[in-house]
């Protein structure tokens, strides 16, 4: 639904596509604590989708880079959108997040964490609910709540055309 209050833009609007891993083990969820322009924040392992990868591949990559844990997405929890105004510069940005659940794999203890990641944490849902002021995104809690409600969709719901992985695409 288009919001008539939003001014029409002469530039084509393009949301930032992100991928996120909802990783649960023994009633605790794997989160990262990271430096942001707004201070230290909590997030699910998440990041931007890179060129040439599917959303599930991007999610596995981001989980490894941010937590040093291998992760294999097995289901789509949901697709989410949120709009923010960046602290630095005031830029208006919309994010579209693909959140996945899956299987936690091997841990690489010697692997350095991505730039900005301070540490990983295993938190209960009650601890996550009690720390909303520290969440990097309101989507963090929503993704976990949907996961806890049993929301899962097959990975086949996301079709990735083979053209995505081609090195050069000519018209």
UniProtKB/TrEMBL annotation:
Its EC number is 3.6.1.-. Signal peptide: none annotated. This is Phosphatase NudJ. It comes from Variovorax rhizosphaerae. The lineage of its organism: Bacteria, Pseudomonadati, Pseudomonadota, Betaproteobacteria, Burkholderiales. InterPro entries: NUDIX_hydrolase-like_dom_sf, NUDIX_hydrolase_dom, NudJ. It is an enzyme of class 3 (hydrolase). CDD domains: NUDIX_Hydrolase. It comes from the Bacteria. GO terms for molecular function: hydrolase activity.
């Amino acid at each position: 639904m288009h919001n008539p209050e939003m001014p029409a833009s002469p530039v084509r609007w393009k949301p930032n596509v992100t991928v996120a891993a909802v990783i649960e083990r023994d009633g605790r969820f794997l989160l990262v604590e990271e430096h942001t322009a707004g201070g230290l924040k909590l997030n699910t392992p998440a990041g931007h989708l890179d060129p040439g990868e599917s959303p599930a591949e991007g999610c596995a990559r981001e989980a490894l880079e941010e937590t040093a844990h291998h992760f294999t997405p097995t289901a789509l929890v949901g697709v989410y959108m949120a709009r923010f105004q960046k602290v630095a510069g005031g830029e208006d940005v919309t994010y579209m997040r693909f959140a996945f659940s899956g299987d936690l794999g091997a841990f690489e203890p010697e692997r350095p964490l991505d730039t900005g990641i301070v540490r990983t944490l295993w938190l209960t849902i009650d601890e996550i609910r009690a720390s909303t002021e520290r969440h990097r995104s309101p989507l963090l809690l929503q993704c976990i709540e949907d996961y806890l409600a049993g929301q899962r969709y097959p990975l086949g719901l996301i079709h990735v055309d083979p053209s995505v992985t081609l090195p050069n695409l000519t018209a």
